[in-house]
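Annex B, item 7. Sequence and structure tokens for protein A, then protein B.
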Amino acid sequence: MQISFFQFLPKFNQVKDNSTAVKKLIDDNAEAIKQSDLVVFPEYFLSGPQTMDTYKNKYINIVKDLDLKTEFKDISKQYPGVVFVFGTILDGEDKQVKNVSYVYKNEKIIAEYSKKALIYNETYICSSDARYPVFEVNGKKVGVAICWDTILPEIFRKYAGKVDLVVIPSFWGIGGNALQAQYKFSLEKKYYRALLTTRAYENAFAVLFVNSVGKFSSPHYSDRMMGGSLAVVPPHGEVYFTNNKNPDTLHTVTVDFGELEKYREFYATDKDYEFYKTKKIF
């Protein structure tokens, strides 16, 4: 499976400008995208994260004049057969607002996944659900998780034995706390790289983590460095990792699921989980 992704960095709440920039990136990389089975964007790729104030007083007013799902449909129309995971957007009304990832193929929504592990201001703005949709890409089953969902093994267990790949659009900063400041290395990167490797091996599927890169600024999230995307495929582990700081670069990863099947033959961790569930030990 050939997967392409952008680590696009949005300008805060400049949704129309961000959308225009994304469409230009797609147009500029049209030939490569036509050769892809799957194309992925990061979480919040059109706006950046919100507070309740910026959501109610700015974001809503901006997006009501834009039909983002129609824009996604139009992009999909240009690339028949290609599956697009359009990062995430805040969508819904009143208490049903969700941080949702829409998946398109041939102009249709084939899956939508709502972030489960809401964090920071999301806990005031968003709700979620217990749905774990699975869709198909080039004969392989694919699921979605979003950013901070990575810390919860229970979310990924929902896909064990059901998918070959979990795609994780993210907006994960790589600094900003007191413990991080004590080290020369990025503790955040070590943290999510270890978690993602664990999620892949314990469930016997591949994972693709797509993050924004660069310095993001907003009134409440100032000068936060974003960065680092990777793919993990057992038995090889990380088969792709990038520190590329250009948010406009198209990255391409080829995932060999034949290698994953070899791992599953000897380390059936997905089946082990279902077996031990029957023992009533957890």
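Protein B:
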Amino acid sequence: MQWLRQPPLSLNTPFSHNYCRIRCGAEEILYERLLLSGIIKIYKMAPRKMRNESERESIAGAVDDEKKSEDKFEKPTVGSPEDVNKADQTILTPLEDYIKTASYLGTKVITPTMRKYVYRRRLDGLAILNTLLVDKKLADAIDFIKQYKPEEWTLVCKREAGWRAAKMFAELTGVRIFTKKYPAGVLTNTILENFIETKMIMICDPWLDKNALADAKKVKIPVVGVCDTNNHTADVDVVVIGNNKSNKSLGLFFWLLAREYLKAHNVNKALPSLEDFVGEQLILEEPKKKRVAREKKERDLKSAEVAIEEKMKALVGKADEDNESKQVSDGAKEGV
């Protein structure tokens, strides 16, 4: 018996699940290998024969134990079509809202901490986020934010694309907000006149709002952050994944947050529409593949119609020529 991490010689393709051949010069020797705790156990035997019956029984028992251990891991059962459809549905809003606002679009840069949320890349290199994960992470963040009263947390948004939605959210809920420029040291320097104390902050971009993020880490308060594929999430406690560079996507995030926050705190205020938060009309654009297929179909139909019209004109012209020739022949006969 010999214990090795790898067989010493090159192996050909095994002809069963636990047998393999090793060619040593002109001889061909049969080996049996078993994976036990990550170590390959090799038994040297005569060609196509076991050394004795005891080894045959011991190996067969080990193989049976291995099969039993594999059977312990039950295969996931597939539920009914209704359960599958529910798993593919978003929680907060229909999928069309995420598509219209392009909340699933990332950047060409993907950081290691955001790679697990990326579904694939487009042909132009832009990353596409998993929309179900976007919805789930946003729902988790909303559940976390609802625990705080309006005077207990602060919203920071330095990106201009989110100013309109952030201001509307602050007017509805009464949350303190910092746009354009965040006052340095407002959370850490007690000498400042505008010094504030807060239990939680929300930022719209960990890179642009890095000063607020650094102050929050110094005073050790939780941070909720909207992170795109080019952001690092190491210092963000509650991550909201999505496009944080568009007024449409940020408008959708703040609209959903305002809707759920007003419900949780029983604030009787009329919630503006999603288009009011976004600042423009939202149109569900047709996918490029469908648009190209539709345009091709329309061109084919138009060309077919033109071909039919030309064919009909040709038939009518031929019929007129036949009638004229017939009249000429008839007139000639009468004249004769």
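Comment on protein B: The CA atoms of residues 158 and 191 lie 24 Å apart.
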